[in-house]
Amino acid sequence: MGIGKSKTDPCLLSLSLSKNHSVDTSQKPHKSDCKISEEISLHGGEDVACSNSAELPTGEQEGADGVEGFPEEEAEEEVFLKFVILHAEEDTDEALRVQNLLQNDFGIKPGIIFAEMPCGRQHLQNLDDAVNGSAWTILLLTENFLRDTWCKFQFYTSLMNSVNRQHKYNSVIPMRPLNNPLPREKTPFALRTINALEEESRGFPTQVERIFQESVYQIQQAIWKETRNLVQRQLIA
């Protein structure tokens, strides 16, 4: 991307240089020039192009090869995240603000919001990767959250995942942010049974420290790595 092939014909360039050289040194063509012209007429342009590329210095040949095809980028090693924030599409900016708050003010990182998940994949695949690829799932409870059917599916799926997987117990964290929080009376019953993070509460910093414990993260990370290694061994076998 951003680098295109030059359309200059190497044969023409070689001939042009040869002509200029002969004019500068002598008005009469040298025997070597005659041999070159004869070889050109006998073998054709394709062979000349090959011979010219073979005469290039090593550095220039490597550069030319780089234009032909870029080396494949090494796959980035996947990281087990501290948290993922599930949110309504309208609350992307608020989700980013909460993400920065947790990472910068409390040092809980790395984290991600659902809008940052890779594009071009199915939502269900992204949801599975987000929930199982992080230690905690934060549900951003705003007025917009319950208006979105997809958000309802997200929180039900997250809750069921925390129930069915022992190491995911207590990993779903409802949170009422400062901006446009969902009133308690509108909160679904399933979420009322879980203590929610209240950003406007004076005890918010204490809640954060009590929930996001490094020891819990390390346990989940170890299980995540073990599961991934098992799947990879099965694929190889």
Structure characteristics:
237 residues, alpha/beta, five-stranded parallel β-sheet, 10 helices, 5 strands, 10% strand, disordered N terminus
SSE layout and pairing:
Blueprint: H1 10-25, H2 31-43, H3 45-55, H4 58-68, E1 81-86, H5 92-105, E2 111-113, H6 123-132, E3 134-140, H7 149-164, E4 172-176, H8 189-192, E5 197-198, H9 204-211, H10 214-236
Parallel strand pairs: 1-2, 1-3, 3-4, 4-5
Description:
With 237 residues, this protein is α/β, with parallel strands linked by helices. The protein has helices at 10-25, 31-43, 45-55, 58-68, 92-105, 123-132, 149-164, 189-192, 204-211, 214-236; strands at 81-86, 111-113, 134-140, 172-176, 197-198. Helix 2 (31-43) crosses helix 3. The chain is globular, with a radius of gyration of 31 Å.
Largest sheet: 5 strands, parallel
Order of helical and strand elements: HHHHEHEHEHEHEHH
Unreliable sequence segments: 1-75
Percentage of helical residues? 40-55%
Overall geometric form: globular
GO molecular function: signaling adaptor activity
Domain TIR: 75-231
Subcellular location: Cell membrane; Cell projection, Phagocytic cup; Cytoplasm; Early endosome
GO biological process, one term: positive regulation of interleukin-18-mediated signaling pathway
Can I get a quick summary?
The chain has 237 residues and is of the alpha/beta class. It has helices at 10-25, 31-43, 45-55, 58-68, 92-105, 123-132, 149-164, 189-192, 204-211, 214-236; strands spanning 81-86, 111-113, 134-140, 172-176, 197-198. The chain is built from ten helices and five strands.
